[in-house]
Amino acid sequence: MPWFRVSVAAAFLSLLTGAVAQAANATQCQADLTQAGPPPNSTKVLILGGGMAGVIAARTLQQQGITDYVIVEAKHVFGGRMSQTTFGTNGSYVIEKGANWIHGTQTDNGPANPVWLLALKHNLSMVKSDLFNNITFFDYNGPNDYSATFDASLTAFNNARALAGERWQQNQTDLDLRSAYNYLGVSPKTPQEAACQNASVIILFDFAVPLRLTPTGRIGVQMHRSAELPADASQTSSLAAAWNYNYTFESDVGYSDVDMLSVDPRGFACIVQAEAATFLNTSQVLFNQTVTTIQYSQSGVTVQTESGYTLTADHALVTFSVGVLQGTDVSFEPALPDWKRAAISNIEMPVYTKIFLQFEKKFWFDTEIGLYADQQKGRYPVWQSLDYPGVYPGSGIIFVTVTGDYADYLEQLNKNTTQVQLEVMEVLRRMYPDAPDPIDIFLPVWGRAPLFRGSYSSWGASFRPQHSYELRAPVNGNLWFAGEGTSLKYFGFLQGAYLEGENAANNIAACIKDSTRCPSTS
To answer: In what order do the strands lie in the sheet with 440-442?
Structure first.
């Protein structure tokens, strides 16, 4: 393999030392990385991305006795889409811009969600969410109890999942959820029905409230719930939505129906950062380096960064989001084969936006959730109070979740908080006419963020299981892929990223130790 030596080793160390100092200011969780000098320019394995998949892949290589690797991370901290910020007029509250929940824990002595175990290991502060039984209902006229309509929407979704299983068993074409609802004769006819159908997807998946199934609702194949589906049912595969449910929430094949909300002042990403600090040293990580080009050949992989660094390795593990893979932020040379590009194109990367508001004091519902039905579909529908027992009581903080086409619209506003505040407050004042102006507002941007290009992966109605296999399959025998998007069982979930990083690293280690176990070079 060619050896590229950059005569700026001191710059590597300076950059890394500064990164660790910044990380210590943001979080203490990864401040204990063992000092061991700068990373080399050539190594056995390059791990591109320091989110859940990347860090767990590195740990797995370490456990396999392979220490000749380098994680290349664009930010100054580990965590990827697990990202927090301080919020409030005095910056005294930590809010999660991205992932916020552990979906599924453990039932008795059954299988345990590895993310749950990681949270326990690093003493993450969490509270159990009970969103399903804590909803207050509103529409454009104010308070309006349409809870029966909401319950009917959950039944409709349950029936759509069952239909997906039946069609799968009969080898019939997959349907998106909107088509499934049409087929079942339960398409929404009123704004309240539309809001419930829309919100049921957000709450059931984005907030991950378990939908319990009766024995008669179970179907023959192993079906499961998806983690984070777009609010627009036309974007969502009913088969994929059903497929991912049981493997997380059904205790006979998955973990449990419990969802834990992170309220840790260190941030949810602490579990990744603290885990990295248990085994990594500074020669195994390079912060603040954004990958721009990945060249691969029979002789190895060469990676170039935005800052002009060149790194080489025998193998590279790409853990970028599918949104990044779909775009032009990173170029592959040569271009990825047709089958790989087709798999990347077939998965979706929707945007999930939380808009946080702080007020002088709480004036809203005492439940965890407020559901708003507007005459315009998807307009600021799901509100969650953080001024709630066990979360941030007395904080005056509430946030509203927007997904699907409306989230895309907010992205186009490019963080114009003045306009966003006007729109959000118009809705909130339909719920509470005397609502005052907020004293602080914050909204993250995911779709336009070059490191992510979206919030989470989700399969559309064209989904075939083969797409998932091809998305995770290596290219050329030395270019590997892992992340929540490559997980057939857990796409959109943190455990998907964890298990895919672990699996890819085990396969890389097997290849390094025994060339007969390496994948095809096609």
So the answer is: 142-143, 135-139, 369-373, 382-385, 397-403, 352-358, 440-442
